[in-house]
Design goal:
Layout lengths: L6 E5 L2 H14 L4 E6 L16 H8 L3 H7 L3 E3 L1 E5 L7 E5 L12 H10 L11 H7 L14 E3 L2 H14 L3 E4 L2 E6 L6 E6 L3 E4 L2 E4 L6 H6 L4 E3 L8 E7 L9 E6 L2 E7 L4 E7 L6 H10 L10 E4 L3 E3 L3 E2 L2 E3 L5 E2 L7 H14 L8 H27 L7 H8 L4 H13 L12 H9 L16 H19 L5 H8 L5
Parallel strand pairs: 1-2, 1-11, 2-7, 4-14, 11-20
Antiparallel strand pairs: 3-6, 4-5, 8-9, 9-10, 12-18, 13-16, 13-17, 14-15, 15-16, 18-21, 19-20
Length: about 500
């Protein structure tokens, strides 16, 4: 088989562009890869929290984990602490990993639910190792039965690390602004791009990593956008960095306010802070006040505003252009899925990478799979807003009473009435659904009859054993700060 497709052009750097360059150059030695970016155009660069799928991507690219944490000033992440979402003053933890012990016939939550009737069950999070480790500020990587984790990182430093790796594998970087996209008059495919009105760069496959601007996929190819603002009304964010005032904790904080939420992400050298809100329900000045009143430590940057619209392109791959990252769509940062979606699209592209001409069947498969990825995450995010007891503002009253996607409604109704919940193939979130639904106050009315096969004493022993096992493992873990300083301390 002749490998005719040789020239790949990546438009835009940042996390998306350099992740794509690093992965493609690792897998395909024969590709001619050019990345075009401009130092004059800033990147969003606030995607500082990740989910566990990132571990696989770093392995694919060939990145040592300790070195990665040192170079990105990173910390470990065991989950997200959700504060004020169900009610003002209430909190719960969404952790990585599984809660309790499942039986093939019925999930752990059924046994936990029966335990509520018997006055045997504690809060759901008591049966999750990652939750308890996070709350105790402990962390360690252990060879067996260890913690499931992800990272907090400086996205700008991660892009620099990936750039160095990519360029060492032959990726060419060109500095400049795209001033024109040149389409083939017959096929409508992208023939080339013009940089700074003087340099023309031809290619056979183009990756649009230009962020919200979507220079190729939308401005040139007019792919179309599916707007999800009616389900996810937040459309603004303001980010600011502050000095650390305490050792970094191994989790992200997501703190709801009257028209959205704010984040706090601890790195080794600073803390990332931000506020997410809906401009329909809150002014920019109000949001800035909420952000600045909620931070600790001296400001290291000026507040940086970001405008966005939730939704996705109607196609992630259109003609000979593939959108990677924000160019393809955006689901707000609540569950730290932005970098995951970048990596998913890159890995899908590698698996379906054309040897010669682009095949329509591969493109359709890519788009179908990407659509599933976006849609399942969208439902999961909408869940957080819709399941609430808050009625203290117009924003929360809207979220509580809004019509939700039919796919989400079906799942919530089934879980509430019966306790049953069925995962679709290749879903990203698994145990997460139970943690968030229960954390947001959706307690099943019933439980699976398999839970009644235990006597009350057996159920008590079963639940107590899980908690005891977790506490035993927890006692052996060092503090998160101690672990970082010992194995992956960054140069501050």
């Amino acid at each position: 088989m002749s490998n005719n497709l040789k020239k790949v052009v990546i438009v835009g750097g940042g996390t998306a562009g350099w992740m794509a360059a690093a992965a493609l150059s690792k897998v395909f030695n024969t590709l001619d890869i050019t990345l075009v970016e401009s130092d004059q155009i800033g990147t969003i660069g606030v995607g500082e929290a990740t989910i566990p799928t990132m571990l696989f991507f770093n392995k694919v690219v060939g990145i040592d984990e300790n070195e990665f944490l040192k170079q990105t000033q990173g910390t470990y992440k065991l989950g997200i602490n959700f504060e004020n979402w169900l009610d003002d003053g209430k909190e719960y933890f969404h952790a990585f990993g599984s809660t309790g012990t499942n039986f093939w016939a019925a999930g752990f939550h059924h046994f936990w639910r029966r335990g509520l009737d018997e006055n045997l069950s504690n809060d759901f999070g008591h049966y999750n190792f990652e939750t308890q480790a996070a709350k105790a500020h402990r962390f360690a990587k252990t060879p067996q039965d260890g913690l499931n984790y992800a990272f907090h990182l400086d996205a700008g430093l991660y892009a620099k690390m990936l750039r160095k790796i990519s360029e060492s594998r032959g990726v060419k970087r060109i500095e400049g602004k795209i001033t024109q996209v040149n389409l083939h008059p017959d096929s409508g495919y992208i023939d080339s791009i013009t940089v700074d009105e003087t340099t023309t760069i031809a290619g056979e496959l183009f990756l649009d990593c230009s962020g919200f601007k979507a220079l190729l996929i939308e401005e040139a190819l007019h792919t179309g956008f599916e707007d999800w603002s009616h389900w996810l009304p937040c459309n603004r964010a303001i980010a600011v960095q502050t000095e650390n005032t305490e050792p970094p904790v191994p989790y992200t904080r997501a703190i709801a306010h009257t028209a959205g939420w704010r984040w706090r992400i601890p790195l080794q050298h600073r803390t990332g802070n931000g506020v997410v809100y809906s401009s329909e329900y809150m002014s920019d000045d109000e949001a800035t006040g909420i952000l600045l009143n909620g931070v600790d430590g001296k400001l290291l940057t000026e507040p940086r505003p970001i405008t966005f619209k939730t939704g996705r392109r109607k196609k992630q791959w259109n003609k000979n252009c593939v959108a990677i990252g924000l160019a393809g769509g955006f689901i707000e940062p609540l569950e730290s899925t932005a970098i995951h979606l970048i990596q998913q699209n890159i890995l899908k592209l590698i698996k379906l990478f054309p040897s010669n001409e682009i095949n329509a069947m591969d493109v359709n498969e890519y788009n179908k799979d990407s659509e599933f990825d976006y849609d399942q995450i969208k439902d999961f995010i909408v869940l957080h807003y819709h399941l609430t007891n808050r009625e203290d503002s117009a924003f929360w009253r809207h979220c509580k009473t809004m019509e939700i996607p039919a796919s989400l409604k079906q799942r919530l109704d089934l879980f509430h009435e019966t306790g049953n919940f069925f995962l679709r193939m290749n879903e990203l979130f698994v145990d997460s659904w139970f943690q968030v639904m229960i954390g947001q106050g959706l307690i099943p009315k019933k439980y699976h009859r398999a839970a009644d096969e235990m006597s009350k004493a057996e159920l008590m022993n079963f639940l107590d054993h899980i908690k005891g096992n977790i506490q035993g493992k927890l006692a052996q873990l060092p503090s998160h700060d101690e672990y970082l300083k010992r194995y992956c301390r960054a140069s501050l």
